[in-house]
Amino acid sequence: MMKAYPLLIEGLQVIIVLLGAPLMVGWVRMLKCWLQGRQSAGPFQPYRDISKLLIKDIVLAENASWIFRFAPYAVFGATLMAGSIIPIISVDLPLTATADIIALVALFAIARFFTALAGMDIGTAFGGMGSSREMMVASLAEPAMLMSVFTVSLVSHSTSLSHMAHTVMEGTLMLRPSLAFALMAFVLIAIAETGRIPVDNPATHLELTMIHEAMVLEYSGRHLALIEWAGMMKLFLFSSLGIALFFPWGIAVADEAMMLPVALIALVAKLALVGLLIVLIETRLAKMRIFRVTEFLGSAFLLATLGMLSYFMLE
Amino acid sequence: MNVNIAAQINSVLAALILLTAFGLLVQRRIYGLLHIFAWQGLFLSISTAIVGYTAGLHHLYISAILTLTLKVFALPYILYVLIHRLKIHKEVEDMVNIPTTMLIGIALVIFSYHLTAPIRELSTLVTRSTLAVALATVMLGLLMMITRKKAVTQIIGFLALENGLFFAATSATYGMPLVVELGVALDILIAAFIFGIFFFQIRTTFDSLDLKEMEKLKEED
Question: ipTM score of the complex?
Fold first, then answer.
C-alpha cells in the first residue's frame, strides 16, 4: 500500500494534466467571449476540436522530413513529462526525485526546440519567420525564468519542486519582497512562454506578427491535435507551476490521502482565478510590437534579478 | 506593533522604492514618470512614518508629512504644470537604450550592496538592511540624470536622487535633525521654482529643452 500510493497519485496527476488542460483553455475562451459580448461555444469546445483533429487525415508537405513527423510526438511527450514532475495536487510525487526545476525548464526548451525545427523543416516563409521569433523570445525568457525560480530556490534552499512547494507552504507568514518580485517576473514570463497577448495572439492564424501559429501552420490531422494539446498543457502547467511555487496552500502533503479532494477543489478554484486573470490582461491590453518584446522580457529579467538581490539585501 | 513586523514592512517599502527607481529608468512617457515619482514619494513617506513609530522619534512624523505634501503632491503638480505650459508631449529620449540602462542599473545595485556591507555589520538599527537600497536609489537617480537628454527628465532624476538621500538618512541614522530636514525641504521647493524659470529661459534661447544645445555656448576661437 505504501508503495502503490505515490504511483497512484502520479497516474492521477497525469490524467488531470491531460484532461484538465483543454478544460482550462475552454474556460479562458468562454470568459473572453463573455467579456467581449460574444456567444461562447462552452468550456468543452477544445475537447471537440481535439477529437475532430484526431480522426482527420494528415496532409504532409512533399519535402517534409522525419523531423516534421517526429516533432509533434516529441513536443507532446516533453510537455507531458513536465506535467508529471510539477506538484499539482500533491507534493508526494515519485518522479520529482528524478527532475528538479532546472530539468523542468530544459523539458520546456526541448519542446520549443522541436517546434522551431519543424517550423523550418518544410521551408515555407512563415515557418522560418515563426521559428526565428520563437527563438528570440526564448533566448530572453529562459534566463529570466531561471532567475525567477532560483529566487524561490534560495528562499527554500532547494531546487526540487516538491521541496520548494513544501517549504513555501510550511514557512511562517512573512512579508518577503523577494518572492513578490519573483512572482511579478514569473507572470510576465508565463505570458511570453505560453504565447498570450500582449506577446503573441493564440487566437489567430491570419496575422503577420504571429509567433507560435506561424510555426505550426503546416500541421494537420493528429499531428496538429497533439501540438494544440501540448500548447494547452503548457498553459495549464505554467499556471500550476506558478501556483505550486507562490501559492501552494491546499496542495496535499505526503501520506495524506484525505487531503486529495480538498487539493483538487483548491486546484480548480485557483486555476479558475488564473484564467480570469489571463482574460482580464488579454482584454485590457493590445498586442505589442515585436521589438517591444525585448523590453517586456528585459523588465521580467530585471524584476527576477531584483528579487534575488532583495533576498540578500533585505532578508 | 512588534519591531520585527515593522522591520519587515520597512523592507517591503524599501523594495518598492527600489522598484520605482527602476520604473523611472524604464518609463518612456513623461506623465508616467511623474506618477512613478509621486509613488516613490508616498512609499518614502510611509517608510519614514514607520521608522518614526518603531524608534519612538516623533520628529520623523513631521518629516513624513513634509515628504507627503512636497514629494507626492506639490512637486509633481509643479512639474505637471511646467510640462503642460511647455507643451512637452514627446516620449522621453535616452542616450543609451532601455535594456542597457537596466543592466547598468542592476550592476549599480550590486555595487551599492557591496559598498554598504561593512556599515550593515556595524549598525544595530532596525533599518540597517535598507541602507543598500537607499544608496542604490541615489545611484539610479544619478544614472537617470546622465542618460537622459531633456532637461525635465534630468530634474526628475535629480529629485529621485534626493529621495534616495533622504531614505539613506532615515535608514542609517533615523533621520537628520529636524532643522536640517526643514531646510532641505524648503531648498527642494525653491529649486523646483528655479528649474521652472530655467526651463523657460533655455527654451526661449534655443527653441528646445535638449541640453545638447548648451554645447553651443562656447566662445569662438
Answer: 0.85
